[in-house]
Design brief:
mainly alpha, single chain
Amino acid sequence: MSSSPTPPPTTNTGTPSRPDLLALLASVPDPRARRGVRHQLPAILAVGLAAVLAGARSFVAIGEWVAHQSTQTLTQLGVTGVAPGESTIRRAFTRLEADTLDALLGAHLWT
């Protein structure tokens, strides 16, 4: 048995096939009450992850990063309408089941 990881599945073009990040984030259970939800959880997670990858190290910094992004960038991250603010992002991330998000992202990066 090889100790090398199994290569990811490929598409017809021979390029590795990976699930879309927003589709992956959509599988994270939303811990928020349905009433009053303005922003989809996958979009909140996507902007949070993008901000951290860009260097944000706090919820305030994530909120500032989101506020400075173009509509096109936010749309690509799944945001529809008004961008989520710092408090929305903070509340969503603090209510998440962190182990589930960690497992999904780890599996995504492994493939």
